Amino acid sequence: MTVSYHDIVRASGLLEGIVAKTPLVKSLTLSNICHADVYLKLENQQYTASFKERGAFVKLASLTPEEREKGVIAVSAGNHAQGVAYNAKRLGIPATIVMPKNTPYTKVHHTRSHGAEVVLTGNVFAESLEAAGRIQQERGLTFVHPFDDPHIIAGQGTVGLEILDENKDIDTVVVPIGGGGLASGVVTAIKSRRPDIEVIGVETKLYPSMFEGIHGKEFTGGGVTIAEGIAVKQPGGLTLGICKEKLDDVVLVEESSIERSIQMMIEIEKSVVEGAGAAPLAALLDHPDRFKGKKVCLIISGGNIDTRLLAQVLMRGMAREGRLVRVRIEIPDVPGALSTISALIGEEDANIIEVYHQRHFYDVPAKQTDVDMVLEVRDTQHGQQVIDRLIKEGFGGRLLGNTSLD
Questions:
Q1: Residues 6+ apart with CB under 8 A from 72
Q2: Among 24, 27, 279, 383, which is disulfide-ready with 377 (CB 3.0 to 4.6 Å)?
């Protein structure tokens, strides 16, 4: 099996008016930071906030009438689930989605809202996949693979066609890689028309499956990653073959860089991205010399990030940049002392975020107490300014070192 440029062109025709032709925009600020011309292909603006809609529709449209009547089954805890469920509903095809039992409720809810039957089973993906195989056999359903399928790859490849049509000057495209469906389609589309354009894949160091596959190494992926959308232990056989032949390079990025990229996309571009969608920007942060001076298109593959996780990433980013600091203040254990230091902190234009008032577990005199605070400040210098003011007014205090987040 293989996927040709003509397969992707046909898929593009099928998707006309079905999926959004997402914007390709230049970021002046990111260009200045990365010392390159940075363009963003915003697939997080699809209806289900992911490129997965493309391949799912093309695959479902290829089914015979008999297959459509019986229905389809997929295994996913994220974007593939929503892409299949949404398009199956549009085409009138019954869909069953098997998801691990620990899948966040919001993802389960969104998948069900598209009319799919959701089966929650298995503690890990492999167990869910095994259960899906049993259900498929029992009901005679068609399995919709998340990446290792020529129809899926052709659909994802339409992202590459749009990049070529929208900007003729780009010389490098950076694409996130999980199982390799998006990368396989994009590199096939781009290299067929513009072999001079570099196509570079990016993976998190915790899951370097395509990098290992291309270089003939043992698959070692594992661990908890913020980029769960590309946390694939082993690529597909079809996708590995295409990427090994056509990709110019695969680079690996740190988890901390993905976090920073999510924060930068929010603060600079006002755009919500998930970990996998932020990985291409992380590639520019971790490998600046590799991309310096180039005209780079980053494929922002999706924006489905848990809101609690997003809040945590943003707060960790503030701590990393010194805009959140921890301080320990020594005060006498008398009425009004806490009120006094709160007023002094306010006078120094700092904002109190959290307070931990500790009398019993620190080694302090009985008539003294330590107060740990988290303050919002302009930077660490401003934080030290607050401490200096407290010391001047007769209180002991110091900045506590932030645990390294890099």
A1: 60, 63, 84, 88, 93, 94, 95, 96, 141, 142, 143, 144
A2: 383
Q: Widest CA span of the chain, in angstroms?
A: 82
Which regions of 214-301 does DSSP assign to beta strands (E)?
249-253, 295-300
Catalytic, 233? Answer no
CA dist 33 and 320 (Å) reads 17
Cβ atoms of 167 and 270 closer than 8 Å: no
Higher-pLDDT residue of 389, 103:
389
Task: Write down the catalytic residue from 12, 50, 52, 192.
Answer: 52
Under 8 Å between Cβ of 198 and 291: no
Which residue in 133, 40, 125 sits closest to 80, CA to CA?
Answer: 125
Order of strands, sheet of 324-332, starting from the edge strand that comes earlier in the sequence: 351-358, 368-376, 324-332, 396-400
What pLDDT, in 10s, does the model give residues 344-402?
Answer: 999 999 999 999 876 655 555 556 788 889 999 999 899 999 999 999 998 888 888 66
Of 306, 43, 93, 158, nearest to 84 by C-alpha is 93
Neighbour tally for 80: CB within 10 Å: 28
- What distance in Å separates the CA atoms of residue 321 and residue 20, rounded to the nearest whole number? 36
**Is residue 71 within 8 Å of 93, Cβ to Cβ?**
yes
Residue of 89, 91, 87, 79 lying closest to 44 (CA atoms): 79
Note whether 258 and 279 are within 8 A (CB): yes
Structure tokens of 71? 């229905």
Active-site residue flag, 52: yes
pLDDT digits (tens, 9 = 90+) for 332-353: 878 888 899 999 999 999 999 9
Kindly report the pTM of this predicted structure: 0.88
- For residue 267, report the phi and psi dihedrals to the nearest 5 degrees: -75, -35
